[in-house]
Design goal:
single chain, mainly alpha, 11 helices, globular
Length: about 300
C-alpha cells in the first residue's frame, strides 16, 4: 500500500505555486480574467445600497438576478476547472512550450467537471441520508411528549459528529487526487480514486490542513483589516437620532463604499488573479504530487483523453 508523504507534498505544492508563478499565470490568465470580469458586471446588478437594512424585505433579488447568480456560479466552475486542469497538466508534464494564449482541451475540462458533478450527486445523496440519520437520532432522544431522554442529547450529538465525520472522510478520500487522475488517465473513475486513497485519509487531511491553514489565517487577517478600514465610524453612528436613521446611514455608507470599490475593479482584478493563481496552484501541486506518489509516471495507465 503506497503512502503519500505529507511534508514533501506540502513543500512541493508551495514550491510549484510560487516557483512556477509566472508560468501558471500565463496558463490561466484567460479563464481567471473572464471570471473576474463577469463577477464585476454581475455586482452592478446587486442592490448594495440596501445591505444593512432593518427590514430584510428591502434587500430583494429578482428572478433575473437569481438567474444571473446561477449562471455566474456555473461560469466560475468552468473557469476554475480550466485553470486547475492547466496547472495539473503542467505539474504532470512540465513544458516550456505552452503558448501565452493557452487553454486546455475542452474534452479534458469536461471530464473533470463531469467527475466532480458525479461525485457531487453521490455526495449530496450521502449528505441527505446523513441529515435523515441525525434527525432520527434526535427523535429517538426524546419522549413522545417532546421531553429529552437522559443522555439523548449526547447520543444525537455523537451520531451527528460520526455521520459528518464519515461524510468528510468520503469527500477527502474520493476527491483529493481526482483531478490529476482524470487528466493523466483520461477517464472518469471515482472507484480508482477511492481505491488509491486507501490508508491515506489522515495524510490527505494533514496535507489539506497544511495548504489551507496559511490561507485561512491570511484571509481572516485581511478581512478584519479591510472591515476595519471601510467600517462606518462609530462617531457617525452615535450621532443618529433614531434606529431608522442609523439603518439608513449604514445603507448609504454601504452604497458609497460599493461604488468606490467598483471604481477600483481593474486593480482588484489583477490582485485577485494573482491570489487565485497561487491558491489553485498550491492545490493542483499537492494533488499531483500525491497522485504521483501513488501512481509513478511509468506505472500510470495510458490516457484515452
Amino acid at each position: 500500500m503506497q503512502k503519500v508523504p505529507v511534508g514533501d507534498t506540502i513543500a512541493f505544492a508551495y514550491r510549484f505555486a510560487f516557483g512556477e508563478f509566472l508560468t501558471l499565470l500565463r496558463l490561466s490568465w484567460i479563464p481567471l480574467t473572464i471570471m473576474m470580469v463577469a463577477i464585476h458586471f454581475l455586482s452592478h446588478s446587486l442592490p448594495l445600497g440596501t445591505i444593512g437594512a432593518a427590514d430584510p424585505k428591502q434587500f430583494s433579488l429578482g428572478y433575473g438576478q437569481i438567474a444571473s447568480f446561477i449562471a455566474m456560479f456555473a461560469l466560475q466552475l468552468v473557469c476554475i476547472a480550466t485553470a486547475i486542469v492547466a496547472y495539473t497538466e503542467h505539474a504532470l508534464h512540465p513544458s516550456p512550450d505552452r503558448k501565452f494564449f493557452y487553454l486546455p482541451s475542452a474534452k479534458v475540462v469536461g471530464k473533470v467537471l463531469a467527475a466532480l458533478l458525479l461525485f457531487g450527486l453521490a455526495f449530496g445523496a450521502v449528505i441527505i441520508s446523513a441529515v435523515g440519520i441525525i434527525y432520527i437520532a434526535q427523535l429517538a432522544g426524546k419522549t413522545s411528549s417532546g421531553m429529552e431522554r437522559p443522555g439523548g442529547g449526547f447520543i444525537s450529538t455523537l451520531v451527528a459528529i460520526s455521520v459528518m465525520g464519515a461524510a468528510y472522510y468520503a469527500f477527502i478520500r474520493a476527491t483529493f487526487i481526482l483531478t490529476p487522475l482524470v487528466v493523466a488517465e483520461g477517464k472518469i473513475d471515482l472507484r480508482r480514486a477511492w481505491d488509491l486513497g486507501r490508508g491515506n485519509f489522515w495524510r490527505y487531511a494533514a496535507i489539506a490542513l497544511g495548504i489551507a491553514l496559511p490561507f485561512l489565517i491570511a484571509s481572516l487577517a485581511a478581512s478584519l483589516l479591510f472591515a476595519k478600514l471601510i467600517a462606518l465610524p462609530q462617531s457617525a453612528l452615535d450621532s443618529a437620532q433614531s434606529a431608522a436613521e442609523r439603518q439608513q446611514m449604514i445603507m448609504d455608507w454601504n452604497a458609497t463604499i460599493g461604488a468606490q470599490l467598483r471604481m477600483l475593479w481593474p486593480l482588484m482584478t489583477i490582485i485577485n488573479i494573482g491570489i487565485y493563481t497561487v491558491m489553485y496552484g498550491i492545490s493542483a501541486g499537492a494533488s499531483v504530487f500525491a497522485y504521483r506518489a501513488l501512481v509513478p509516471a511509468n506505472a500510470a495507465p495510458e490516457s484515452d483523453a
